[in-house]
# Entry
Amino acid sequence: MKTKVLILALVLGASAGFPVAHAQNPPRELQKLPQEVTRVPVVFSGGHETDPRDGGRPVVLIAAALGVAPEVFREAFSHVHPANPNVGPTNAEAHKNKAALLQALGKYGITNERLDTVSDYYRYVPSRNELWRTKPAVANALVKDGSVIGYELVSGGSGYSSPPKVSVPNIKGATAKVTLAFGKAFESNGAVSAITVSQPNK
# Structure
């Protein structure tokens, strides 16, 4: 069953003294803040790096959408002979590669239809400066006396293959730890599930 999940989470530093709302039980509206605390929209950057072993493929996203571990997909893909990315595979190459993948992934319950759906969703051409489908996360920094005391996650977005960097306009030294969540649903696969204040490196 396909469901659309609105990720609305409030994740704050433990020292901030605010309650924590998790994505599994999202609040209906943003928390009312003390007068001395202000919201500042954060800026996300990056978050689309891939493992050097994967040749630019977002394997963590593909594997999660298929319901297998990245290592399982990597092993299956090792039997594939990728075509020239600027030309694409011939019909014979595509048929052979599909058969190799299904032979390795079929034992995990992955059907030809699901493999096609996931492959099409995350297909992109790097030489055209393309990127697979993504949706940016939206969050606020909670600022008090010029310092970030917590982060408020409004929407987790999707399509992040690595934790994006977080910056807060006009706030120096703001630090954040970003946690991602992966799953079969495209609209929440590779979503930011939490942002917490992290300790700066000493």
